[in-house]
Amino acid sequence: MVLLSTGVWAADYPTRAITIIVPYSAGGSTDTVTRIFTQIFSTHLKQPVVVENKPGAGSFVGTKELIKANPDGYTLGVCSNALVGFHHSMANIGPLWKEVEPIGLFNDDPVAMGVSMKLGIGTFKELIDFGKKNPKKLNRGVNPGTVNALYAARLMKLAGVLTNEVPFPGGGEANVALAGGHIDMYFDTVRVYQPLVTAQKVKILGISSERRAPYFPEIPTFKEQGADITWGSWNGIFAPKKTPPEIILALEKAIERTVNDKKYVEMMEKNTSVIRYLGRQAYLRLIEEEDKVYQEVAR
After folding, report:
1. What distance in Å separates the CA atoms of residue 73 and residue 14, rounded to the nearest whole number?
2. CA 10 and chain centroid, separation
3. What is the pLDDT of residues 104-147, one digit of tens each?
4. Domains (ranges, CATH) in the chain?
5. What is the pTM of this model?
């Protein structure tokens, strides 16, 4: 009787508002694309979708909230690469991605190096030269435990530059500090820097993609500037473990409809954000593959 009633209940899903936990502060890259996504996602679910920010410890706080949530389909989470890379850069933390259910990927952006205009440096080479001549002089903002922090440290090691790491709970706070010249550099998605570049507060010195980004063809890649390293910043929807498979399937279909929705495409293009869709199984394979890569980078 319990199994039958669960099936009927899942078939009616959803019947009320859904909360999506964003494990970062408001105004950061993940928060921005999630709010775009949820506007269209809610229309396909025919229920309101509420974004709840739970920043802290490089996404650990919000992710743990998702892990502990009731697996009824009414509390979901947005997770970035940090979910996969976290346990490789933090002590005594297991693979959090194995404690939640991936449902679908909806975004994947390249990462850029932004530097404060107050630094007076115009190119990646100039930054490297300055850093080598002045060890520990550059203050680099980091969101501890995230993949961006992991790869940024890897990039600095490849370049032979020692920096001071200044921790922030999310990109929102870090980029405010960068714009004010309180830190010298930070790594975030390119679109986050657009208003800061326009306001002449930040200059972008490089991008982490294999090739130049279509929205920003003027920004050189790190590879073409001598640092053979690439990575991206993706975001996807996850559910707590033991969420009924019928609900997982309903959410997966709604994600696919959302990323193919013309309004979503238009909004993401306006925000210069890259759309990438993967269903549940393909998303899980991506996570498994990246876990191996992050382990090697962390070493």
Report:
1. 8
2. 30
3. 999 998 899 999 999 999 999 999 999 999 999 999 999 887 78
4. 2-109+233-298 (3.40.190.150), 110-225 (3.40.190.10)
5. 0.79
